[in-house]
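I hope you will forgive my troubling you with a question about protein structure. I should value your view on which stretches of the chain appear to form regular backbone elements. Here, with my thanks, is the record as I have it:
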Amino acid sequence: MSASPAPRPAGDRYVVVVNHEEQYSVWFADRALPAGWTATGAQGTRQECLDHIEQVWTDLTPRSVRASR
């Protein structure tokens, strides 16, 4: 069984990231981005980033599916 990661402080900074399918997520600002993800420029607390994603990610359908319609 793997150990759970240590909890991070509530004041941590995050960035909003997007992948090639135009799917959004939040990522720790102090860590290298995972492969396949690009920073959008939006950053802040986790909640601020989630609020931003809620405003900009209005169609949850992956880009490849939208393109095939």
Notes: Strands lie at 14-19, 24-28, 37-44. The radius of gyration is 14 Å. The chain has two helices and three strands.
